[in-house]
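Data deposition worksheet. Section B asks for the primary sequence of the deposited chain exactly as it was used as input, without tags or linkers unless they were present during the calculation. Section C holds the resulting structure in C-alpha cell form. Section D is free text for depositor observations; keep each observation to a single sentence. Incomplete worksheets are returned to the depositor.
Section A, Depositor: J.P.
Section B:
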Amino acid sequence: MFSFTYVKIGVAAVLLLGAYAFGWHSRDIDFTKFKDKQKAIVEKQIAENEAKEKEQELINENLKQTYEARITSIHTFYTGMLNSSSRTLSVSDPNATITVNGETHNLLSVAQECAATTEQLITLQDWVNQQVNLK
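Section C:
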C-alpha cells in the first residue's frame, strides 16, 4: 500500500518545513529585538532634541531681553544727550554734524547708530558662543 519511500519523503518534508519555521522564527525574534532597541534609541534621541530645543529657546529669549534692554539704554542715553540743554555732559555741542558722501548727519545720531550696531554684534557673538556650548 504505502511505500516506504513516500514515508521518507514525508518525514524529510516535515523536517525541512520544521527547520525553515524554526529558522524564520529565530530570525523574527532577533529582528523584533533589534526593532525594539532602535525604537528605544529613537525615543531617547527625540527627548534629547526636545530638551536642546527648550534650552535654545531659553537662550534666545534671554539674549533677546538683554539686547532689547541694552538698545533701550543706548537710545535713552543718546536721546538724553541730544535733548540736553545743559552743557554738563562731555559733548561740547549736541547739535554737531558730520558730512559723509555729501549727506549731513547729527554726530550723536551717528554715535547712537554705531553703539547700536556694536551691541548687535556683541549679542550675536554671545548667541553663537552659547549655541556652540550646547552639548
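Section D:
The longest strand covers residues 97-100.
The chain has a mean pLDDT of 82.
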